[in-house]
Amino acid sequence: MKLVVDVQGFKIENNKFIVKEFAAFNGSQVCHYVFKPPFPLRMLPSDLHKQATWLMNNHHAIDWNNGYTPLHHFGSIFQKLIKDIDCIYVKGMEKANYIKKFSTVPVYEIDEQPAFELGEPLCFYHKNNKCICALSNVYFLYNKYMMQN
Ligand SMILES: [Zn+2]
C-alpha cells in the first residue's frame, strides 16, 4: 500500500525543521495531527522568529502555539502509521529527507515544482481562509499522482 504524506512546520536553529501539521492518506484512510510547539516562540532568534511569523501570516497560517500532541510523539505515531505501508510519497526534497529519518520503508520524492497553491484548508487549525493545509495537500497529491496507474 502507498502512503502520501505532507508536513507543514517551522525552522528552528541549525536549519532544523519542526513539524506543526502532519497528514497522511493511503487512498482510504487519513491521519492528521497538529503538534505542540517544542518551546516558546520568543526563544527563536530574530531572523527565524520573523520567518515563523511570515509562515503564520502567509503560508500555513497555523499559530506556533496551536496543537495538542507533544512533538516527541511524532516518531512513534509515524512508526504505527507505516506498519502496512510499502512506500511513501512526499513532495519536495527537504520534506522527503525529513520523513526518511523516521521511515523504515522507501520514501519517494515528488518534484517540488509546481509548488502547492494557497487554497481552502480542510482542517480547523488554520487562521486564514486561503493557506497551505497538509490535509488538503495529501488528498491533492494522492489524486494527482497515485490515481494514474
Ligand atoms: Zn490543515
TrEMBL record:
Top-level taxon of origin: Eukaryota
Name of the protein in question: Uncharacterized protein
